[in-house]
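Q: Hi! First time doing this. I have a protein sequence and I read that you can turn it into a structure. Is that right? Here it is:
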Amino acid sequence: MFPVCFLDLDGVLVDFVGGAIAVHKGTLDPEDIDWGFWRQLCQTEEQFWKPMGKRFWSNLKWTSGGKLLVTGLESMFGPENIVLMTSPCSTPGSVEGKVEWIKRELPDYKFRFFVGTAKHLMASSTKILVDDHDGNVDKFVHAGGKAVLVPRPWNRRREICKVTSVNDILSEAREECRKCQT
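A: Yes, that's right. Below is the predicted 3D structure, encoded as C-alpha coordinates:
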Protein backbone atom coordinates (compact mmCIF):
# COMPACT_ATOMS: atom_id res chain seq x y z
CA MET A 1 0.00 0.00 0.00
CA PHE A 2 1.32 3.44 -0.94
CA PRO A 3 1.50 5.94 1.93
CA VAL A 4 -1.18 8.57 2.38
CA CYS A 5 -0.23 12.15 3.20
CA PHE A 6 -2.53 14.23 5.39
CA LEU A 7 -1.80 17.89 4.72
CA ASP A 8 -2.79 20.63 7.16
CA LEU A 9 -4.22 23.91 5.91
CA ASP A 10 -3.76 26.74 8.45
CA GLY A 11 -0.12 27.63 8.91
CA VAL A 12 1.04 25.14 6.28
CA LEU A 13 -0.85 26.05 3.10
CA VAL A 14 -3.01 28.94 4.31
CA ASP A 15 -1.64 32.09 5.97
CA PHE A 16 -3.95 32.25 8.98
CA VAL A 17 -1.48 34.33 11.01
CA GLY A 18 -1.13 37.02 8.34
CA GLY A 19 -4.90 37.10 7.94
CA ALA A 20 -5.49 37.41 11.68
CA ILE A 21 -2.98 40.23 11.99
CA ALA A 22 -4.59 42.04 9.04
CA VAL A 23 -8.18 41.66 10.25
CA HIS A 24 -7.18 43.17 13.60
CA LYS A 25 -5.06 45.85 11.92
CA GLY A 26 -2.09 44.67 13.96
CA THR A 27 1.54 45.49 13.41
CA LEU A 28 3.03 42.23 14.66
CA ASP A 29 5.81 40.62 12.68
CA PRO A 30 4.47 37.19 11.62
CA GLU A 31 8.03 35.85 11.94
CA ASP A 32 8.10 36.64 15.66
CA ILE A 33 4.93 35.22 17.20
CA ASP A 34 3.83 32.25 19.25
CA TRP A 35 0.56 30.35 19.73
CA GLY A 36 -0.73 33.01 22.12
CA PHE A 37 -0.25 35.90 19.70
CA TRP A 38 -3.95 36.78 19.97
CA ARG A 39 -3.10 38.43 23.31
CA GLN A 40 -1.00 40.97 21.45
CA LEU A 41 -3.93 41.89 19.20
CA CYS A 42 -6.98 41.77 21.49
CA GLN A 43 -7.93 41.96 25.14
CA THR A 44 -9.94 38.75 25.05
CA GLU A 45 -9.90 35.58 23.03
CA GLU A 46 -13.56 36.20 22.14
CA GLN A 47 -12.62 39.56 20.56
CA PHE A 48 -9.86 37.85 18.62
CA TRP A 49 -12.13 35.21 17.03
CA LYS A 50 -15.24 37.36 16.50
CA PRO A 51 -14.36 38.86 13.06
CA MET A 52 -13.22 35.50 11.68
CA GLY A 53 -16.33 34.31 9.90
CA LYS A 54 -16.84 32.67 6.54
CA ARG A 55 -15.44 35.53 4.49
CA PHE A 56 -12.28 35.71 6.58
CA TRP A 57 -11.53 31.98 6.11
CA SER A 58 -12.44 31.86 2.44
CA ASN A 59 -10.25 34.85 1.55
CA LEU A 60 -7.03 33.89 3.30
CA LYS A 61 -3.89 33.92 1.20
CA TRP A 62 -1.50 31.05 0.55
CA THR A 63 1.55 30.74 2.75
CA SER A 64 4.87 31.42 1.12
CA GLY A 65 5.80 28.12 -0.46
CA GLY A 66 2.36 26.57 0.06
CA LYS A 67 1.68 25.97 -3.62
CA LEU A 68 5.15 24.49 -4.13
CA LEU A 69 4.60 22.20 -1.16
CA VAL A 70 1.37 20.84 -2.63
CA THR A 71 3.00 20.32 -6.04
CA GLY A 72 6.00 18.57 -4.49
CA LEU A 73 3.89 16.30 -2.28
CA GLU A 74 1.65 15.43 -5.23
CA SER A 75 4.67 14.32 -7.25
CA MET A 76 5.90 12.26 -4.30
CA PHE A 77 2.68 10.61 -3.12
CA GLY A 78 0.42 11.03 -6.14
CA PRO A 79 -2.46 13.50 -5.82
CA GLU A 80 -4.88 10.65 -5.12
CA ASN A 81 -2.92 9.85 -1.94
CA ILE A 82 -3.11 13.33 -0.42
CA VAL A 83 -5.94 14.43 1.85
CA LEU A 84 -6.33 17.91 3.31
CA MET A 85 -6.99 18.11 7.06
CA THR A 86 -8.01 21.19 8.99
CA SER A 87 -9.25 21.93 12.47
CA PRO A 88 -12.45 23.92 12.78
CA CYS A 89 -12.79 27.07 14.85
CA SER A 90 -15.78 27.89 16.97
CA THR A 91 -16.64 30.98 14.95
CA PRO A 92 -19.71 30.72 12.72
CA GLY A 93 -18.72 30.19 9.10
CA SER A 94 -15.20 28.91 9.68
CA VAL A 95 -15.84 25.47 8.22
CA GLU A 96 -17.84 26.87 5.30
CA GLY A 97 -15.11 29.44 4.60
CA LYS A 98 -12.39 26.79 4.65
CA VAL A 99 -14.40 24.60 2.27
CA GLU A 100 -14.90 27.59 -0.04
CA TRP A 101 -11.13 28.23 0.02
CA ILE A 102 -10.44 24.60 -0.88
CA LYS A 103 -12.95 24.64 -3.74
CA ARG A 104 -11.44 27.82 -5.19
CA GLU A 105 -7.72 27.26 -4.56
CA LEU A 106 -7.46 23.45 -4.70
CA PRO A 107 -10.54 22.30 -6.61
CA ASP A 108 -9.18 18.78 -7.09
CA TYR A 109 -9.43 18.40 -3.31
CA LYS A 110 -13.03 19.56 -2.92
CA PHE A 111 -14.01 15.99 -1.99
CA ARG A 112 -10.71 14.98 -0.36
CA PHE A 113 -10.56 16.78 2.97
CA PHE A 114 -11.41 16.21 6.61
CA VAL A 115 -12.42 18.79 9.18
CA GLY A 116 -11.72 17.87 12.79
CA THR A 117 -9.35 18.23 15.68
CA ALA A 118 -8.59 14.54 16.29
CA LYS A 119 -6.08 14.13 13.46
CA HIS A 120 -4.29 11.41 15.42
CA LEU A 121 -7.26 9.08 14.91
CA MET A 122 -6.23 8.81 11.24
CA ALA A 123 -2.69 7.67 12.10
CA SER A 124 -1.20 4.35 11.00
CA SER A 125 2.17 3.11 9.83
CA THR A 126 1.36 4.11 6.23
CA LYS A 127 0.05 7.60 7.02
CA ILE A 128 2.08 10.81 7.17
CA LEU A 129 0.87 14.09 8.64
CA VAL A 130 2.40 17.40 7.48
CA ASP A 131 1.37 19.98 10.08
CA ASP A 132 2.63 23.08 11.91
CA HIS A 133 1.23 22.26 15.35
CA ASP A 134 3.49 20.42 17.79
CA GLY A 135 0.58 18.72 19.54
CA ASN A 136 -0.98 17.39 16.34
CA VAL A 137 2.35 15.95 15.19
CA ASP A 138 3.16 14.42 18.58
CA LYS A 139 -0.25 12.76 18.91
CA PHE A 140 -0.12 11.47 15.33
CA VAL A 141 3.30 9.88 15.85
CA HIS A 142 2.27 8.48 19.25
CA ALA A 143 -0.75 6.87 17.54
CA GLY A 144 1.56 5.06 15.11
CA GLY A 145 1.81 7.47 12.18
CA LYS A 146 4.69 9.38 10.66
CA ALA A 147 4.86 13.18 10.62
CA VAL A 148 6.69 16.26 9.45
CA LEU A 149 6.50 19.33 11.66
CA VAL A 150 6.68 22.31 9.32
CA PRO A 151 9.01 24.86 10.95
CA ARG A 152 7.10 27.96 12.01
CA PRO A 153 7.79 30.72 14.58
CA TRP A 154 5.08 29.26 16.85
CA ASN A 155 6.40 25.69 17.14
CA ARG A 156 9.45 23.92 18.55
CA ARG A 157 11.25 24.22 15.19
CA ARG A 158 11.13 28.04 15.31
CA GLU A 159 14.93 28.27 15.30
CA ILE A 160 15.15 26.86 11.78
CA CYS A 161 12.01 28.33 10.21
CA LYS A 162 13.86 31.20 8.53
CA VAL A 163 16.37 28.88 6.85
CA THR A 164 14.07 25.97 5.99
CA SER A 165 12.91 25.75 2.39
CA VAL A 166 10.04 23.88 0.81
CA ASN A 167 12.64 21.46 -0.53
CA ASP A 168 13.77 20.73 3.05
CA ILE A 169 10.19 19.93 4.06
CA LEU A 170 9.77 17.74 0.98
CA SER A 171 12.99 15.90 1.84
CA GLU A 172 11.63 15.17 5.32
CA ALA A 173 8.36 13.94 3.82
CA ARG A 174 10.29 11.74 1.37
CA GLU A 175 12.22 10.19 4.28
CA GLU A 176 9.00 9.52 6.20
CA CYS A 177 7.52 8.02 3.04
CA ARG A 178 10.51 5.62 2.80
CA LYS A 179 9.92 4.55 6.41
CA CYS A 180 6.32 3.70 5.53
CA GLN A 181 7.43 1.38 2.77
CA THR A 182 9.99 -0.62 4.75
